[in-house]
Design goal:
By secondary structure, this protein is an alpha/beta fold. The protein is 36% helix and 20% strand. Helix 13 links the parallel strand 11 and strand 12. Helix 1 runs parallel beside helix 9, helix 12 packs parallel to helix 13 and helix 16 runs parallel beside helix 17.
């Protein structure tokens, strides 16, 4: 099937001239619009203006060009239908067998932070209509919406086999996906209160496999102006895996919560070591030494530049990946000795930068909180991300006042605990995690796990703080904690047996603080 009649209207003109040259030499007739018409004429092509096709001028500053029966009859006519052919003959129309169209640059306009008026003008109307009509009639029309497809289409078109119906169906499916994603970005940007939730992604990478080798997997970035790991530069090491990405997400999700130098080590999607300190070197030491067993084979994230001193620490153990805002030349040289270590640079993690995951809408002028999606059989869940307000005014302190250091540790522990899979317990001391319990089906097991890790790795630390992500349903956990030497407990409260739990703490000489805010994470 050699192309005879093409309709071309594109915003992205990348590669268009090279694609069309051999087709034009084979006798392709080209009809085009506005800027595309001018571009092709300047490149030396013979081009028919869209107004000659429609018998009607482009009007309303180009808002109406292809929205005309003489265009859509020539696109939608099925050439295996005698009645359709008769209609085209009646109106002296030649059917289009090639349509090339991509849409007004709404996302680029959004990225440039243009005002609402400019965004509205970059909502394409005729383009999606033309693309959808062409895709619907894929039996007769080859439709192209992505310049990346030019090379293989040209090779097919000039080859002996030509474009087959399966090729055209593949391109048609891509068109509907492209239009759906385009509309999704617009809907999310304008924040339409429809009760519907749309989600569009662009492929970042096809992964080697998913959680296990038998599972296929791909990595997508949300379309629109959302920051994310897809922005990070992978400067060395192996390709990122599905599990690497999950662990990276857990690591950066916690490290971005801190306003002082912080390092987070993650293993199997759970933090296993967290450190904060005025000294970035000390913060890294705290994170790596929090649990020297669990950190092996893990992932480390920091919100500060990695210098040679931190790099020396990090290369003493086996790690899968390190992500930070920047790396010194000396640090990169040290890491270069670890051929499989993945090094990711992501400036959005830097201290003092705009908080990751919260963007300012140029339309509503109000912060839009980041959103979490979870798949279900036959559907998905949507929620705002949990937040930590770094304030203590709502705390109910059941006993003596607390020192500033203890307050800092409790706020630190609350963030760590909220990043662990529930049931979760975090034992912390002076900006370091000592023992973490997570993913347990009852809170006693979580407490036992955290206490065991504390006593194993940091037996010299006396009277640390303990934080729970949710309330204690019974006093059994308090009795167990009291035996360990912990003197301060923070948890949300809200159990039917709060009085029993509070009484147990008072009996054991434990200072208990109720926050009234749960940070449960399934």
């Amino acid at each position: 099937m050699k192309f005879k009649n093409a309709l071309i209207s594109v915003s992205d003109k990348t590669g268009l001239v090279d694609f069309l040259k051999p087709l034009a030499q084979s006798g392709l007739r080209i009809v085009s619009t506005g800027g595309t018409y001018k571009h092709l004429k300047e490149a030396g092509f013979e081009v028919v203006d869209i107004s000659e096709q429609t018998g009607f001028p482009e009007v309303l500053d180009g808002r109406v060009k292809t929205l005309h029966p003489h265009v859509h009859m020539a696109v939608l006519a099925r050439m295996d239908e005698p009645e359709h052919r008769q209609v085209l003959e009646q109106y002296k129309l030649m059917p289009f067998d090639l349509v090339i169209c991509n849409l007004y640059p709404f996302e680029q306009t959004l990225a440039a932070k243009k005002p609402l008026e400019d965004l509205i003008e970059n909502i394409d109307i005729g383009g999606p209509t033309l693309l959808r009509a062409s895709a619907k009639n894929y039996h007769s029309v080859t439709v192209i919406c992505d310049p990346k497809d030019y090379d293989w289409i040209l090779a097919k078109a000039l080859g002996e086999e030509g474009m087959g119906v399966e090729d055209r169906l593949h391109l048609a499916a891509k068109v509907f996906s492209h239009c759906s994603g385009y509309d999704s970005v617009i809907a999310e940007t304008l924040e339409a209160p429809t009760g519907l939730k749309t989600m569009a992604g662009r492929l970042v990478q096809t992964l080697r496999y998913g959680e296990n080798p038998q599972q296929k997997a791909s990595w997508y970035a949300l379309r629109g102006q959302y920051p994310g790991l897809h922005e990070a530069k992978n400067s060395s090491g192996k390709e990122l895996s599905y599990n690497n990405l999950l662990d990276l997400d857990a690591a950066v999700g916690l490290v971005r919560e801190f306003s002082e130098p912080a390092a987070v080590a993650v293993k199997h999607n759970n933090p296993c070591g967290v450190g904060v300190d005025a000294s970035s070197l000390r913060a890294m030491e705290k994170a790596l030494k929090a649990d020297t067993v669990s950190v092996f084979g893990g992932i480390v994230a920091s919100n500060f530049r990695i210098e040679s001193s931190q790099a020396e620490l990090l290369t003493e153990i086996f790690l899968e990946c390190i992500v930070a805002p920047d790396f010194s030349t000396e640090a990169r040289n040290i890491f270069s000795k670890k051929k499989n270590l993945r090094i990711l640079e992501w400036d959005a993690l830097a201290l003092g930068s705009e908080r990751l995951g919260v963007r300012k809408s140029e339309i509503s002028k109000k912060p839009i909180p980041p959103t979490e999606f979870r798949s279900l059989l036959g559907g998905f869940l949507v929620q705002e991300k949990d937040d930590y307000l770094n304030e203590t005014t709502s705390w109910k302190i059941l006993g003596n006042t607390i020192t500033e250091q203890v307050k800092k540790d409790l706020l630190f522990g609350e963030k760590v605990c909220g990043s662990l899979k529930s049931n979760s317990i975090a034992i912390v001391y002076e900006g370091q995690t000592l023992g973490l319990g997570m993913g347990q089906v009852n809170r006693v097991d979580a407490v036992e796990q955290a206490l065991r890790r504390w006593k194993t790795h940091h037996p010299h630390v006396i009277s640390p703080c303990l934080v729970s992500d949710a309330f204690f349903p019974f006093r059994d956990s308090i009795d167990l904690i009291a035996q360990s030497g912990v003197k301060t407990i923070l948890h949300p409260g809200g159990s039917l047996r709060d009085e029993e739990v509070i009484q147990a703490a008072q009996e054991k000489g434990i200072l208990m603080i109720l926050t009234g805010k749960r940070h449960f994470r399934h």
